[in-house]
């Protein structure tokens, strides 16, 4: 018998997601026999609401640090305890609303290819016009279908694959998704982006400070994953970390040092280098058929993102040097 949605358990994680979580669970409940919601210390009644609509709720022990990785691991363990024969687990974030029919499409993709261990689909922002920062998220989600390297935290996986690779590293406060993907591919499994809608996402980013925090977290993630897998064949995130250090620290630092000796010419050269990088990014975006406005917004914020990413990367290096410092979540909501 071919597998279907009844062979899927859903694990959703969240922390103070409010109305977004309600949309997430309402969309998930009709499609799977088991929906597990994992709560990380919410104070908005999220856990109570999830129970009221029929979800199994796991409330993480606050005596240990919260992380998305830990939440997904504990959610997976609970789901498989309740449904030990489930062949697949769909992971969702509490700010995402799963698209109708996605589970059937994803399960069919697994049935068609035995070498695929993880699949994901298209994610779109619910309110891309609400802010420039929501639009940036919407642009980030636009990926071409086919084999990919990184899936993000919303995906479906075979339960045997999750167990084979040991799940997520619960000690990571950021970058747990690409790190998990590296190990999945390292075990010989393919990651597939399907040409089908998977979820609608609500970033709810309205301020520059939220956007800064999100990119600070990304910089920290680059450092963590590079430390774990930078020495493998793919040199994971080595170039990304180098790019952040060069554009966010080395070049600005050099320009400032040389400024008194060049009467400010070094600063003008630095600005010209940033402008050249911006124009290059815009051209790449235009080749993807993005609008001129989308291309310039994405290009400008990509150039600026080197600086919050540098902050996160340096924070990671500082913690690593001190060794005893406990890592804490970097949240932008």
Terminal Cα span? 44 Å
CATH architecture type of the largest domain: Alpha-Beta Complex
CATH class of the largest domain: Alpha Beta
Helix/sheet category? alpha/beta
Poorly predicted regions are: none
Task: Quickly count the domains.
Answer: 2
* Superfamily (CATH H level) name of the largest domain: Spore Coat Polysaccharide Biosynthesis Protein SpsA, Chain A
The number of helical segments is: 12
How would a crystallographer describe the biggest sheet? 9 strands, mixed
Strand proportion: 15-25%
Q: Mind explaining what this structure looks like?
A:
- The chain has helices spanning 19-28, 46-52, 68-82, 102-112, 132-140, 159-165, 176-186, 208-229, 238-262, 265-287, 292-304, 306-322; strands spanning 8-14, 34-39, 56-59, 88-93, 96-98, 116-125, 146-147, 155-158, 190-201.
- The protein is α/β, with parallel strands linked by helices.
- The chain folds into 2 domains: 9-205, Spore Coat Polysaccharide Biosynthesis Protein SpsA, Chain A, CATH 3.90.550.10; 228-322, no CATH class.
- Strand 2 (34-39), helix 2 and strand 3 (56-59) form a beta-alpha-beta unit.
- The longest helix is centred in the last third of the chain and has 25 residues, at 238-262.
């Amino acid at each position: 018998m071919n597998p279907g949605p009844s062979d899927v358990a859903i694990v959703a994680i969240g922390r103070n997601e409010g109305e977004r979580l309600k949309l997430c669970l309402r969309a998930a409940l009709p499609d799977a026999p088991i929906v597990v919601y994992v709560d990380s210390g919410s104070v908005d009644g999220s856990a109570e609401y999830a129970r009221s609509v029929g979800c199994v709720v796991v409330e993480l022990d606050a005596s240990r640090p919260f992380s998305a990785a830990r939440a997904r691991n504990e959610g997976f363990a609970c789901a498989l305890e309740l449904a030990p024969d489930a062949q697949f687990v769909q992971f969702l974030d509490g700010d995402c609303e799963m698209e109708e029919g996605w589970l059937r499409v994803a399960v069919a993709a697994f049935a068609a290819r035995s070498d695929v261990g993880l699949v994901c689909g298209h994610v779109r922002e619910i309110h891309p016009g609400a802010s420039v920062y929501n639009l940036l998220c919407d642009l980030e989600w636009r990926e071409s279908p086919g084999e990919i390297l990184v899936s993000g935290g919303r995906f479906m996986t075979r339960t045997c694959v999750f167990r084979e690779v040991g799940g997520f590293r619960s000690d990571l406060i950021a970058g747990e998704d690409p790190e998990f993907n590296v190990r999945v591919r390292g075990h010989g499994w393919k990651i597939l982006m399907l040409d089908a809608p998977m979820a609608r996402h609500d970033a709810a980013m309205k301020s520059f400070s939220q956007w800064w925090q999100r990119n600070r977290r990304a910089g920290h993630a680059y450092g963590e994953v590079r430390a774990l897998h930078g020495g493998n064949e793919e040199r994971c995130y080595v170039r990304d970390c180098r790019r952040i250090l060069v554009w966010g620290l080395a070049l600005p630092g050099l320009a400032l040092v040389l400024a008194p000796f060049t009467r400010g010419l070094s600063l003008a050269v630095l600005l010209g280098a940033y402008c050249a990088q911006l124009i290059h990014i815009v051209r790449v975006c235009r080749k993807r058929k993005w609008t001129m406005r989308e291309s310039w917004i994405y290009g400008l914020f990509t150039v600026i993102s080197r600086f919050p990413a540098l902050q996160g990367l340096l924070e990671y290096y500082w913690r690593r040097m001190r060794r005893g410092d406990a890592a804490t979540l970097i949240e932008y909501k």
